[in-house]
Write a structure and sequence with these properties.
This protein has 286 residues and is α/β, with parallel strands linked by helices. The chain has helices at residues 11-20, 44-54, 68-73, 75-95, 128-143, 163-172, 190-203, 219-229, 261-264, 272-285; strands spanning 2-5, 25-30, 37-38, 58-61, 100-105, 147-152, 155-156, 178-180, 184-185, 188-189, 207-210, 217-218, 238-240.
Length: 286
Amino acid sequence: MRILITGASGRLGSQLVAQLQGKHQVKDADIVGGVSHELDITDYESCRRLVADLRPDIVLHPAAWTNVNGCALDPEKALRVNGIGTGNLAAITAQRGIPILYVSSNEVFDGQLDRAYTEYDRSNPINAYGYSKWYGERAIMQVNPRHYIVRSAWLFAHGGGNFIHAILGAAREGKRLRVVTNEVANPTYTNDLAGAIGRLFESERFGIYHFVNEGAVSRWRFARYLLDQAGFANTPIERISRHEWSRPSLPPEYTAMANVAGASIGIRLRTWQEALRAYLDAEAAG
């Protein structure tokens, strides 16, 4: 199968390339260097030409502007990249009868439910990043019926500047740690997410899916478990409210997601605790 992967220099995109290239004919594209094909998803003609040249059997679209604070400061750019750029690919793939898989976010929800969100709960984004991803979802659903929408949350990856790196870096340097207690979601390992995506498109079961490592946790409890597992059990973490952590973009408070649709076709991800331990073991092994 010929697969075009957008955002192939990103943490999830590069993991998709690594996991799929031995089994499929993978074409990688990104706006930055280090990939086979340069692609600006906001440029319709550029997208059209690349898809016409490569003739993929499916497009996997994890490319996005994921800087949530940046999105809050420049919502027009967020919409242009995450929304309109996705709409470009939706239209082009629909014209050619090509399936598309779009990676979305838990932040399409407003965080007001008292239970985990399922795939068909009402989306209601409350910040610019969430709105831009919601726009992308709608662009896909309205234009290309052969679609997969995969929502995930709190991704952690090797070699990236994410929450795990920030917490461990601060602990190593003896810095004061203050972490929010009332933001809850599902920490998700990019390696596990990429594996689930690979199984999903091979199933040809189109629709909306929540692929997250099982179990929901607060930022504080996630950080505490991380430090305990990484040898920093004696490092204290101050508990704070989300309103005490000033930032341009305020995320929804409770966006735990349940994998109902994926589980129904046999695709499950391990618990976030198991995933985190595997991540730490891989980091230690170099």
